[in-house]
Amino acid sequence: MAHRTPGTNPIASRWLALATGRGTAWVVALVPLLLGLAVIGALGDGHRDRLPTDQLPAGYDSTAAVELAERLPDAGTSTAIVVFSTGPADDGVALSQEQLGELGRVVADLSGDEEPVLVPSEDGTAALGILTLQAASASEVAAEVSDLRQELATQLPDGVVAQVTGPAGIEADLAAVFDGANVRLLAVTALVVAVLLVVTYRSPVVWIVPLLVVGIADQTAARLATRLLALVDVAWNESTVGILSVLVFGAGTNYALLLISRYRDELRVREDRREAMRVAVRRTVEPVTASAGTVVVGVLALLLSLVPTTRGLGLACAVGIVVAALFVLGCLPSALVLLPRGVFWPREPRVGESTAAQSRSVWRRVGEVVARRPIPVGLAVVVALGVLATPGLGLRLGLDTADQFLTKPEAIAASERIVESFPAGTANPTTIVTTQDAERVVAAAEAVDGVASVRPAAAADGVTQLQVVLDAAEGSEGSRAAVVDLRAALADLPETYVGGPEAQTMDGTAAAARDRELIVPIILVVVLVALTLLLRAVVAPVLLVLTVVGTYFAAVGASWWIFTGLLGFAALDEGVPLLAFLFLVALGVDYNIFLVTRAREETREHGPRLGMLRALGATGGVITSAGILLAAVFATLGVLPLVVLAQLGVVVCVGVLLDTLVVRTMLVPALAFVLRERFWWPQRLLR
Q1: What is the tens place of the pLDDT at every residue in 226-249?
Q2: Same domain for 148 and 187?
Q3: Cβ proximity of 654 and 558 under 8 Å
Q4: What angle do CA 98, 103, 107 make, to 5 degrees?
Q5: For residue 81, what are the β-bridge partners?
Q6: Are 4 and 29 part of one and the same domain?
Q7: How far apart are CA 648 and CA 555, in angstroms?
Q8: Is 122 inside any structural domain?
Q9: What cellular component GO annotations does this protein have (predicted)?
Q10: Using CA atoms, how far apart are residues 205 and 70, in angstroms rounded to an integer?
């Protein structure tokens, strides 16, 4: 079967001539960079007013409760709970009447109410002040809480300490953890990429070019993505830009590594570096566009999520991958061809040297070991993946409010202090929002086991909001059972919804399960179709998808052992399995594409066995470098002080390392060696 070299159509040939021409390469290199810098300078991040439901799944009770509560006149407010105490409850030091009197005046002064809400505990060691803050957005809440904490520090009686918690305190502390965090993440990511590029190329110069191109692509993608999200009114949050940055740096650098590796190989067989770059681009454009296209369609599957911010993440990541691929394919070749061979100093490629496919690299030698005993090696890898996946059988999903932070902020410490002297559910009360008769709803709620108290919190325009304090702490079986029983007791009342932190966690877990059931099969189909179209085969794509799925389960199992055995996490955030699956499968297919497209190319000339060995020699180094770099980049998510991002980074890091060092190096070649020509069925690759 005649083979048509990618990129040999007239339009592509003319573009390559411009991109590598002596008088035009500098224009092609500079224009994208200048346009990117113009976008970065002219466009700020997009702005969209955050809604209370942005991170809540559509169609669930807790979300409906928030939506109905928006009809209340104080919907643009937030509640802060101030915990006054003399220290831990087990110290046994009670607040004096004089101190309580002074605290009443402090709360009155802060709230502006003549009859402030100050609730002493039964053991006398603590008191709660309830304050309503006139703030709607997260930034306004953070500013109000910061001012409140400063004022409390100057007004407290001697011997009394105050901590701010409640919805306002938690929201403020959540916002505070991101202060400067994305800048730190960008700096750490760029540093990690720079170090790994230096190690990969062993050159003090060449790493600057891809890092500059990908760095500008990253900032361009961030501006364009947030602007697009604001334009189409899709929600995003603080972590969206962080994950987007990691993805652009990881994927963009991977594409750059593949291009530069092929270019360096062609410099060993061609004296003219411009011709070498043209050949390198022709051989690289197909796997890069196939890989980028697969990732884009994969992340767009997140648009089917019930959670608005998850949909926003999918759209933002799609923009990021497109921008990264365009910069690498449209700018990097011209930037590199403008520089002499000496840019690779001290390992300058020279004509006549062995190419990567011809060399006896460590990956070629590993491939030869696998080729001698493919079945035992393949079975050993499968068993190892199964063993690693085993801890995942005990996986527990769902993080409580207190479990979401890597370091304990004031709001969480205050909540724990409340539990020592008040009913456990006082710090994060459950809410009921209804349009029905309030007394009837109160009576039904008070009859539910596990409910400590029910009191009206707000009422207007036919809507009543009730605050329900549970006996059990948030995250406990008793708390979840009480929410279930509350919903059952109120099921016959129209427009009556149970919300609050516990209810939102439960609904989030259910929505995440629904998202996984819908989106995971779509991602698998997308990847399978992409590989089938690229390889024009059936057997290879199916096997490759199975290897990626096996890697995912092994990564989750190994990570769960790390979380529970080393890091002390009690659960995995419900959003992590879906995002980890998406990134591992969509990005893992990159390495499949890099390997098998080269194997297909080599198999046409050298047969299935030698073709795979040459492909391993040619791509083993670049895939390993790309995998280690991508794993390290995702690990930098730990810079952002949220457990969900740290967990996502660990799972993807472990999965990428398994994929590049074990699965792509041993299992996939073993399958190809066992099946030989049948691996490429129904395509006939051999002459």
Answers
A1: 999 999 999 888 788 888 988 999
A2: no
A3: yes
A4: 155
A5: 130, 165
A6: yes
A7: 11
A8: yes
A9: plasma membrane
A10: 57
CA distance 472 to 121: 17
Provide mean pLDDT across the span 199-225. Answer: 90
User: What is the token pair recorded at 596?
Assistant: 């098998």
pLDDT confidence tier of residue 3, bands split at 50, 70 and 90: very low
Q: Is residue 431 part of a domain?
A: no
In a domain, 440, yes or no: no
CA distances for 653 relative to 9, 117, 320, angstroms: 39, 49, 20
Expressed as residue numbers, the domain containing 141 is 61-176
H or E element at residue 456: strand 451-460
Looking at the fold, whether 172 and 185 belong to one and the same domain comes out as: no
Question: What would the two tokens of residue 228 be?
Answer: 């697009």
In the listed set 176, 196, 224, which residue is the last one of a domain according to the structure? 176
Compute the half-sphere exposure of residue 535: CA atoms within 13 Å on the CB side of its CA.
Answer: 30
What is the CB neighbour count within 10 angstroms for residue 435?
17
Q: What CATH number corresponds to the domain at position 195?
A: 1.20.1640.10
Per-residue pLDDT tens digits for 59-81: 999 999 999 988 887 655 678 88
199 and 332 fall within a common domain: yes
- Cα dist. 467→86, 445, 448, 459 in Å? 27, 10, 14, 12
Q: Are residues 335 and 298 in the same domain?
A: yes
Contact yes or no for 62/106 (Cβ under 8 A): no
Our CA angle for 546, 619, 336, nearest 5°, is 130
CATH number at residue 98: 3.30.70
pLDDT of residue 4: 43
Banded pLDDT at 684 (limits 50, 70, 90): low
The residues, ordered by sequence, that sit 6+ positions from 552 with a Cβ below 8 Å of its Cβ are 580, 581, 584, 585, 588, 655
Residues 233 and 319 both lie in one domain: yes
Give the mean model confidence (pLDDT) for residues 483-496.
92
pLDDT at 356: 63
- From residue 89, give the alpha-carbon distance in Å to each of 48, 92, 411, 421, 424: 44, 6, 17, 7, 14
Return the pLDDT at 337: 92
**Same-domain check for residues 208 and 341:** yes
pLDDT, tens only, 572-625: 888 899 999 998 888 778 788 888 888 888 888 888 888 888 888 888 888 888
Identify the band that residue 220 occupies on the pLDDT scale cut at 50, 70 and 90. very high
pLDDT in tens, 17-63: 888 888 888 998 899 899 998 988 887 676 777 788 888 999 999 99
Helix (H) or strand (E) holding 468, with range, is strand 463-470
With a CB cutoff of 8 Å and minimum separation 6, the contacts of 211 are 190, 193, 194, 197, 253
The structural domain count of the chain equals: 3
Structural domain contains residue 105: yes
Q: Which helix (H) or strand (E) holds 469?
A: strand 463-470
- Reference 254, options 323, 324, 311; nearest CA is 324
Q: What are phi and psi of 327, to 5 degrees?
A: -65, -40
Token pair in block for residue 501: 């932190």
- Annotate 55-80 with three-state secondary structure: CCCCCCHHHHHHHHHCCCCCCCCEEE
Q: What is the largest CA-CA distance in the chain?
A: 96
Tell me: do 38 and 65 sit in the same domain. Answer: no
- Among residues 325, 348, 371, the one where a domain terminates is 348
The dihedral region occupied by 282, where left means phi > 0, alpha psi between -120 and 50, and beta the remainder, is: alpha
